[in-house]
């Protein structure tokens, strides 16, 4: 499944950021084998901080399949 259609609609009113978590897609990290929930959550937080600094706006996170489970944490 792809979020391309949904993202196209959403981006008309909000910023859409699509990222591959480590070990997925074309992502490359120093340690692609650390797939713990804590590490992946820290990766997402690092992207948010890079985009918005210490004052991010309200954010809605959407995940697909296994990544959706990680967003629950």
UniProtKB/TrEMBL annotation:
**EC number(s) reported in the record:** 3.1.1.89
Gene3D superfamilies in alphabetical order = alpha/beta hydrolase
**Which GO terms fall under molecular function for this chain's record?**
protein methylesterase activity
Query: Which family does the record claim for this protein?
Result: Belongs to the AB hydrolase superfamily.
What stretch or stretches form a coiled coil here? none
Q: Does the keyword Repeat apply?
A: no
Q: What is the enzyme's main class? A: hydrolase
Q: Does the keyword Hydrolase apply?
A: yes
Source domain of life is Eukaryota
| Alphabetical list of PANTHER family matching this protein | PROTEIN PHOSPHATASE METHYLESTERASE 1, PROTEIN PHOSPHATASE METHYLESTERASE-1 RELATED
Name the catalysed reactions. [phosphatase 2A protein]-C-terminal L-leucine methyl ester + H2O = [phosphatase 2A protein]-C-terminal L-leucine + methanol + H(+)
InterPro entries to which the protein is assigned, alphabetical: AB_hydrolase_1, AB_hydrolase_fold, PPase_methylesterase_euk
The residue ranges of the AB hydrolase-1 domain are 13-64
Q: What is this protein called?
A: protein phosphatase methylesterase-1
* Alphabetical keyword list: Hydrolase, Serine esterase
A Pfam family of the record is Abhydrolase_1
């Amino acid at each position: 499944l792809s979020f391309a259609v949904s993202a196209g609609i959403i981006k008309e009113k909000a910023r859409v950021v699509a990222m591959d978590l480590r070990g997925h897609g074309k992502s490359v990290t120093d340690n692609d084998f650390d797939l713990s929930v804590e590490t992946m959550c820290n990766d997402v937080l690092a992207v948010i901080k890079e985009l918005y600094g210490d004052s991010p706006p309200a954010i809605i996170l959407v995940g697909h399949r296994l990544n959706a489970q990680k967003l629950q944490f």
